[in-house]
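User: tokens in, sequence out, please.
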């Protein structure tokens, strides 16, 4: 079994100020979008779970003395992605690649899905595509379904557990409205990881890094996959119009007073008494 894990390296949005949530003018193809060059890069949390779940699936198969899945990883982005790819190579991912598109695709889920599907068809030829169910602001959770539609594969979302019994099957557990749903798949399939208990990618040792330091990261232009990115963006079903930060501040009142007793009395008289009388 060959598993392709797709992941996204995102800016640490917690580091952005409210004033930074401004979309640049023009189209995505012209470089519009939130400017985050100065913000540290982190793994999208759902994709990070997917990367670790794939490793645990491989380890479990090795513990049963059976042939474990062959893991590969791909991401869309520039050079900021490569440190994460070299980490995955040190963790014994067989291949690690990035697709260079040269423009913002944060708000272009159909374009992202086209690129991933083309990479899976033309380059990796995997049996299973594993990725996070969402990838941050601008993603409505449609990418896994679009990839599955492009490839003609079944798709399951909100995956939290994976197991590979003998026979080339996959046992998958996912969250549903009424509890945990367990499904057995015969690959190929697309699996989107949700709020899995496994949420952190393991850290390779220095020995692991040195052992695979000469393994290169593959870099592919989107054109090599038969994708014209600007044309794909123009065909996006939705367009970025603007961005606005969600205001999470709560209304409040400061109760003045010289002593705790005076503050408590003022709180009762000015705010709580009317509420109590209505009860």
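Assistant: Sequence out:
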């Amino acid at each position: 079994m060959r598993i392709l894990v797709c992941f996204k390296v995102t800016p640490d949005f917690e580091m952005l100020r409210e004033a930074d949530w401004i979309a640049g003018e023009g189209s995505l193809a012209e470089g519009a979008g939130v400017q985050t060059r100065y913000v540290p890069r982190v793994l999208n949390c759902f994709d990070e779970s997917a990367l670790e779940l794939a490793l645990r699936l491989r380890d479990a198969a090795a513990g049963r003395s059976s042939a474990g899945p062959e893991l590969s990883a791909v991401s869309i982005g520039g050079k900021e992605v490569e440190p994460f790819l070299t980490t995955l190579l040190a963790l014994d991912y067989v291949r690690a690649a990035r697709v260079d598109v040269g423009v913002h695709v944060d708000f272009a889920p159909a374009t992202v899905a086209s690129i991933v599907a083309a990479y899976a068809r033309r380059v990796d030829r995997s049996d299973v595509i594993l990725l996070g169910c969402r990838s941050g602001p601008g993603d409505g959770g449609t990418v896994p379904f679009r990839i599955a539609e492009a490839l003609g594969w079944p798709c399951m979302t909100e995956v939290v557990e994976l197991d590979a019994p003998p026979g080339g099957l996959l046992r998958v557990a996912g969250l549903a409205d009424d509890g945990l749903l367990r499904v057995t798949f015969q690959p190929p399939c697309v699996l989107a990881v949700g709020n899995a208990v496994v949420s952190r990618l393991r850290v390779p040792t220095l020995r692991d890094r040195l052992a695979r330091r000469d393994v290169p990261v593959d870099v592919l232009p989107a054109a090599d996959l038969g994708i014209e990115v600007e044309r794909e963006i123009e065909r996006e079903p939705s367009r970025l119009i603007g961005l606005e930060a969600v205001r999470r501040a709560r209304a409040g009142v400061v109760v003045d007073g010289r002593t705790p007793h005076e503050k408590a009395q003022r709180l009762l008289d000015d705010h709580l008494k009317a509420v109590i009388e209505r009860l």
